[in-house]
């Protein structure tokens, strides 16, 4: 199994959101995020869009893995389903772990669990992505 550096540069959006690539191996990627005030909705808990972003990002990084940056694939999300299991608040450390489940040459199926620092499931998602 080839592993890439978790210090890979993220997109401008990733830097804006504050998430970081915690682990990146063939068939799996983990994205970490510390919840801050900017991630909260009007009820004072993490906005659902943050969860969807973590799921989409973890699945995307899972799919494009290659230790050689020049040989990385590119991918787009065709479908993203999210399930919300628990809320997250300021200071919570979340880890979204994407896993490649299968697929054909270009269309791939992935899943992702998002857990807090205590191992509690915050959300789950499934994605269909296309490589190009």
Structural class of the helices, strands and pairings? alpha+beta
Helix count, per DSSP?
2
Number of domains: 1
Helix content: 10-25%
What CATH first level would be assigned?
Alpha Beta
Spatial extent as radius of gyration:
14 Å
Mean pLDDT: 93
CATH architectural group: Roll
Distance between the termini: 23 Å
Unreliably modeled segments = none
Reported by name, the CATH topology is: Thiol Ester Dehydrase, Chain A
Q: What is the count of β-strands?
A: 6
GO molecular function, one term: fatty acyl-CoA hydrolase activity
Protein name: Thioesterase domain-containing protein
Domain Thioesterase: 44-121
Organism: Kiloniella litopenaei
Provide an overview of this structure:
Belongs to the thioesterase PaaI family. GO terms for molecular function: fatty acyl-CoA hydrolase activity. Keywords: Hydrolase. This is Thioesterase domain-containing protein. It holds the Pfam family 4HBT. With 132 residues, the chain is of the alpha+beta class. It has a single domain (12-131), classed as Roll (Thiol Ester Dehydrase, Chain A). Helix content is 17%, strand content 41%. The chain has helices at 12-17, 48-64, and strands at 20-25, 28-34, 75-84, 93-103, 107-115, 121-131. It has a six-stranded antiparallel β-sheet with strand order 1-2-4-5-6-3. The model has no long low-confidence stretch (mean pLDDT 93).
């Amino acid at each position: 199994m080839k592993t890439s550096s978790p210090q890979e540069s993220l997109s401008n959006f990733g830097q804006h959101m504050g998430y970081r690539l915690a682990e990146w191996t063939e068939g799996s990627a983990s994205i970490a995020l510390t919840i801050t005030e900017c991630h909260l909705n009007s009820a004072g808990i993490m906005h659902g869009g943050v969860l969807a972003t973590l799921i989409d990002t973890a699945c995307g990084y899972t799919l494009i893995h290659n230790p050689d940056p020049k040989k990385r694939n590119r991918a787009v999300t065709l479908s993203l389903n999210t399930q919300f299991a628990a809320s997250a608040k300021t200071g919570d450390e979340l880890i979204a772990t994407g896993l490649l489940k299968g697929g054909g040459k270009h269309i791939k199926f992935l899943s992702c669990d998002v857990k807090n620092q205590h191992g509690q499931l915050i959300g789950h998602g499934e994605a269909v992505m296309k490589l190009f």
